[in-house]
Amino acid sequence: MNIIFLGAPGAGKGTQAEVVAKAKNIPAISTGNIIREALANGTDMGKKAKSYMDAGQLVPDEVVIGIIKDRLAEPDCANGFILDGFPRTIPQAEALDAMGVVIDKVIEIDVSDEDIVKRMSGRRVCRKCGVTYHIDYKKPLVEGKCDTCGNELSIRPDDAPETVLDRLTVYHELTKPLRGYYAEQGKLITIEGQDKVADTTALTLKAVE
Ligand code: ADP
Ligand code: ZN
After folding, report:
1. Which of 43, 51, 55, 98 is disulfide-compatible with 38, CB 3.0–4.6 A?
2. Parallel/antiparallel/unpaired status of strands 81-84 and 2-7
3. Does a structural domain hold residue 54?
4. Which atom belonging to ligand 1 lies closest to the Cα atom of 8?
5. 13 an active-site residue?
6. Which domain covers residue 117, as residue numbers?
7. Number of domains comprising the chain
8. pLDDT (tens digit per residue) in 121-170
């Protein structure tokens, strides 16, 4: 099954994408993580993407489309995959269609703007292994430390309060039109983001049965 996770930044689509990936034994592909990795490795693409990312803007379509094209060609995508954070614009969705990629379901995690701001301000990440936590909703076992590797947790530069509002504006203008795009194709399933991650997960797993 090929699944897209749609939603505002910080809506929790990454967490849900990981759960479904495990349940179905298919890869979850996060363009955000791929870009951050490229950045950590000091590649040209990473350096180019950094200024957009830190400012809360989208990385240009041709860059992310190139990333996805390469990634979907990897053998582990043959039995299905989950896209987390791609597409984020109509041209990106059209590029997927043009590649001949058939999407089965588009799961939208719907969270109000007010809640998004709360969620992002509490988000913490492990720079080493990319795992995301939240100071209220997804606490690490030891405060400020990664469960997996023990690394010190940090705040992502694009989670700074001023940037969060810019990212929400970008979401409304460029990403939200994708709901209509996929609703028209009969693929959109909207899930209300719940306060407890486990409750959202239960809804998600039902949606991808
Ligand atoms: P979130 O979902 O919380 O916004 P991501 O890790 O998915 O976090 O994305 C972080 C940033 O990476 C975005 O704000 C954007 O700059 C860049 N990015 C990720 N995916 C895309 C995409 N499909 N198109 C353009 N930019 C992207
Ligand atoms: Zn870690």
Report:
1. 43
2. parallel
3. no
4. 2
5. yes
6. 2-27+74-207
7. 1
8. 899 999 998 888 999 888 999 999 999 999 999 998 888 888 888 899 99
